[in-house]
Design a protein that fits this description.
By secondary structure, the protein is mostly helical. Helices cover about 65% and strands about 0% of the residues. It folds into two domains: about 50 residues, no CATH class; about 45 residues. The longest helix has about 45 residues. The radius of gyration is 25 Å and the shape is extended.
Length: about 120
C-alpha cells in the first residue's frame, strides 16, 4: 500500500489570483493618478540634484564612455538588464526546484521498494 507522507500541494484559487492581480494593478495605477503632475525621475537624477544643492562645486570623478542618445534608449537598456536578471533568477529557482523534485521522487521510489 502506497502512503503519501506529504499532503497534495494546493494552488491558488481563481478568486485569490484575481484579487492579487487587482491589487497589483491598484499599486501601479494609484501613484500615477494621485500625482498626475509629478515628474517621475530616476534616482540618479535625484542624487545629482541633491549633491548639487549640498556641494555646488563638486566635480564628477569620471565621464561616461558612451552616452545613450535619449532617455528612451536608456530606459530600454535598463529594461533589458532587468529582464535578463529576472530570467537568471527564474532559471536558478527552476533548477533548484527541479533538483528538489528529483530528490523527492528518488526518495519515494526507495521507500516503495522497501515496503
Amino acid at each position: 500500500m502506497h502512503r503519501n507522507s506529504q499532503p497534495a500541494a494546493k494552488g491558488l484559487g481563481r478568486t485569490t489570483t484575481l484579487l492579487l492581480i487587482a491589487l497589483l494593478l491598484l499599486v501601479m495605477v494609484v501613484p500615477v493618478v494621485v500625482n498626475r503632475d509629478a515628474a517621475f525621475v530616476g534616482t540618479d537624477d535625484a542624487a545629482e540634484t541633491a549633491i548639487t544643492q549640498i556641494a555646488p562645486r563638486t566635480q564628477p570623478w569620471f565621464t561616461p564612455i558612451w552616452t545613450p542618445p535619449g532617455h528612451e534608449v536608456e530606459t530600454l537598456l535598463f529594461s533589458l538588464q532587468a529582464a535578463a536578471g529576472a530570467g537568471m533568477v527564474g532559471y536558478l529557482i527552476g533548477v533548484r526546484h527541479g533538483k528538489a523534485g528529483k530528490a523527492h521522487l528518488s526518495g519515494s521510489d526507495e521507500r516503495e521498494a522497501e515496503e
